[in-house]
Amino acid sequence: MASLNVGNLGEYLREQRRTAQLSLRQLADAAGVSNPYLSQIERGLRKPSAEVLQQVAKALRISAETLYVRAGILDAERDRDEVETRAVILADPTLNERQKQVLLQIYESFRKENGFEITDATDVTDVTDVTDVTDVTDAEDTAERGPRTADGSGADPQQTAS
Q1: Of 68, 98, 106, 144, which has the maximum CB count within 10 A?
Q2: Cβ(76)–Cβ(44) under 8 Å?
Q3: DSSP-assigned letter for residue 134
Q4: CA–CA separation, 52 vs 64, rounded Å?
Q5: Cα–Cα distance between 53 and 49 in angstroms, integer?
Q6: DSSP for residue 61
């Protein structure tokens, strides 16, 4: 068989396996794949699916994303930036869950508008109906600014009529 163009995935897997002090058979058992199949992946003869890479990564206790990039499944720079942006949003302790979801929806809509496909759209719905973004603002912020009118000004229409 001819070697496939899967970057240096096989070499990297072999190095990680040896660092973890696992035999090929032990890693294959832990990952739930056959020993010959894992051997072919390490030698660059087979290109594994994302699912197999995820199982191997779990068995090695390494990042599946790293294996995806090495296998050419993910575009390293663009996808890493997207994953990092999503992670920062989701990890922000100052935002509640609703705020995080709305922010992710807006982020994804801008990516779509700029021609980038969504690589992981879990928990992100279509943004064409994000009409009620005002409920995302913090109650304290609203209290500090005071009530707003329909045009966005701070004056109360009943007070200005007198």
Answers
A1: 68
A2: no
A3: G
A4: 10
A5: 6
A6: T
Per residue in 63-116, pLDDT (tens digit) is 888 888 888 887 766 666 777 888 889 889 999 999 999 999 998 898 888 877
Angle between helices 35-42 and 50-60 (to 10 degrees): 100
Report how far Cα 24 is from the mean position of its chain's Cα atoms. 30
The amino acid at 20: A
Instruction: Give the CB-side neighbour count of residue 62, counting CA atoms within 13 A.
Output: 20
- The model's pTM is 0.47
Distance CA 41, CA 34 (A): 11
111 Cβ contact list (under 8 Å, min separation 6): 82, 117, 118
Question: Which contacts qualify for 57-60: CB closer than 8 Å, 24 or more apart?
Answer: 58/31, 59/22, 59/27, 59/30, 59/31, 60/13, 60/16, 60/17, 60/20, 60/22, 60/27
Q: Do 16 and 62 touch, CB atoms closer than 8 A?
A: yes
Minimal CA–CA distance to 33: which of 12, 55, 11, 14? 55
